[in-house]
Write a structure and sequence with these properties.
The complex is a heterodimer. Chain A is an all-beta fold. In chain A, 0% of the residues lie in helices and 55% in strands. In chain B, strand 5 and strand 6 form a beta hairpin. Classes of the chains: A mainly beta, B mainly beta.
Chain lengths: 115, 117
């Protein structure tokens, strides 16, 4: 039962353009969503998060959008840089129930930014 | 501030042998997680501790996996005996969760890459 899904295994964009990574979830109890970035041979690094009481959160070049009715979130990177090339994981957790305090991850999307 | 520290970084063992991984979380973090990441997949939770109590171990294969978090700080994850299918990256993470409060992000260590041959 894949509760968090990233349907695009990979994404390739040109430097300076926008990268849009997508994530869908099925568990309506999820109320906190995170994006992690992972380089090879390193652990995931926290990037940005959003609570379900918001529909947008911005941090520099990174913006996360949440559409609760569609159970969909996306990460926008503008402008994209070659150093952004990594695997991006979407994750979700809930304030209560069996998913409290537990991060459920998607499968990841490999982003490649070409110079 | 020191991050989550894991050791060893890499481990190669023969099947049926035991193996152990160690994790030192970020100071002050009350919650510790062990995740397993298979190739091409996202991390999957094995066990979560709040202080020294295992509050979620539903995904831990208890016939061969065990974990402990003595004194609510460091933690070890053990596999005995290891099987070929246990080859994966084992990630430790920590966070500070307030009971009834808003969730926060978890911080991950670099992981231990286990290869069972």
């Amino acid at each position: 039962d894949q509760q968090v899904k990233q349907n695009s295994p990979s994404l390739s964009v040109q430097e300076g353009r926008i990268s849009i990574l997508n994530c869908d979830y099925t568990n309506s109890m999820f109320d906190y969503f995170l994006w992690y970035k992972k380089y090879p041979a390193e652990g995931p690094t926290f990037l940005i998060s959003i609570s379900s009481i918001k529909d947008k959160n911005e941090d520099g070049r990174f913006t996360v959008f949440l559409n609760k009715s569609a159970k969909h979130l996306s990460l926008h990177i503008v402008p994209s840089q070659p150093g952004d090339s990594a695997v991006y994981f979407c994750a979700a957790s809930a304030a209560g129930g069996t998913s409290y305090g537990k991060l459920t991850f998607g499968q990841g999307t490999i982003l490649t930014v070409h110079p | 501030e020191a991050g989550v520290v894991q050791s060893p970084r890499y481990k190669i063992i023969e099947k049926k042998q035991p193996v152990a991984f160690w994790c030192n979380p970020i100071s002050g973090h009350n919650t510790l997680y062990w995740y397993r990441q298979n190739l091409g997949q996202g991390p999957e939770l094995l066990i979560r501790y709040e202080n020294e109590e295992a509050v979620d171990d539903s995904q831990l294969p208890k016939d061969r996996f065990s974990a402990e978090r003595l004194k609510g700080v460091d933690s070890t994850l053990k596999i005995q005996p290891a099987e070929l299918g246990d080859s994966a990256v084992y990630l430790c993470a920590s966070s500070f969760l307030r009971t009834g409060g808003m969730n926060t992000e978890a911080f991950f260590g670099q992981g231990t890459r286990l290869t069972v041959v």
